[in-house]
């Protein structure tokens, strides 16, 4: 199995940008976290963004709605996001899909496939150069091969980010999540 991905961004108006992402690869929980951190940079306003597309970090990170498991999984991810910038505010809307199928697991564990679909709405405003306040809401539906039915996930996040250097950011974040 060879990993591959496609990422891109295009302006669809003077203030609106569309981001697309698809990837298919073998992965595990540790690799997902490391890859997410390696993909980030700080933009000129102090916002954390994906280093290749510029999509806001809240939309660039992996999907936290799935259970963490030991083993290697074939992970397929797709996302579509729009970011609309006004003179002081930026609004983002994203939809994503992720599917994990077990490939290799530790002896004695019972892995299971998972599929998640989610939608996010985000807002950010620079308070001064290098400092940004942001908020986001997210709704997702998760399905696992070992369980019947769907799980509904809700989250609300509010935060403050400060760029200390070009590659170092301090953040204060509050998040409320609920899984039913």
List the helices and strands and how they pair.
Blueprint: E1 4-11, E2 16-27, H1 29-38, E3 40-42, E4 48-50, H2 57-60, E5 72-85, E6 90-104, E7 114-128, E8 131-144, E9 151-163, E10 169-179
Antiparallel strand pairs: 1-2, 2-5, 3-4, 5-6, 6-7, 7-8, 8-9, 9-10
Name some characteristics of this structure.
about 180 residues, mainly beta, about 10% helix
Q: How many E-type strands?
A: 10
State mean pLDDT (0 to 100 scale): 82
Q: Residue share in helices?
A: under 10%
| Rg of Cα set | 17 Å
Explain this structure to me?
By secondary structure, the chain is mostly beta strands. The chain is built from two helices and ten strands; from the N terminus they run E-E-H-E-E-H-E-E-E-E-E-E. The chain has helices at 29-38, 57-60; strands at 4-11, 16-27, 40-42, 48-50, 72-85, 90-104, 114-128, 131-144, 151-163, 169-179. The strands form two sheets. An eight-stranded antiparallel sheet has the order 1-2-5-6-7-8-9-10, covered by helices on one side. A two-stranded antiparallel ribbon has the order 3-4. The longest helix is centred in the N-terminal third of the chain and has 10 residues, at 29-38. It is globular, with a radius of gyration of 17 Å. The model has no long low-confidence stretch (mean pLDDT 82).
């Amino acid at each position: 199995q060879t990993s591959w991905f496609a990422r891109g961004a295009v302006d669809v108006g003077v203030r609106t940008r569309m981001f697309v992402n698809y990837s298919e690869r073998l992965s595990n929980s540790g690799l997902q976290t490391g890859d997410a951190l390696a993909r980030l940079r700080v933009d000129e306003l102090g916002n954390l963004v994906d280093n290749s597309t510029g999509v806001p970090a809240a939309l660039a990170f992996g999907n936290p709605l799935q259970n963490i498991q030991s083993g290697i999984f074939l992970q397929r991810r797709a996302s579509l996001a729009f970011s609309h910038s006004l003179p002081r505010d930026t609004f983002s809307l994203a939809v994503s899909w992720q599917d994990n199928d077990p490939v290799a697991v530790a002896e004695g564990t019972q892995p299971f496939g998972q599929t998640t679909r989610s939608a996010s709405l985000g807002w950010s405003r620079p308070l001064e150069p290098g400092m940004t306040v942001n908020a986001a809401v997210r709704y997702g539906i998760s399905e696992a091969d070992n369980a019947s039915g769907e799980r509904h996930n809700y989250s609300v996040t509010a935060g403050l980010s400060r760029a200390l250097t070009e590659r170092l950011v301090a953040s204060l974040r509050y998040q409320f999540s609920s899984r039913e």
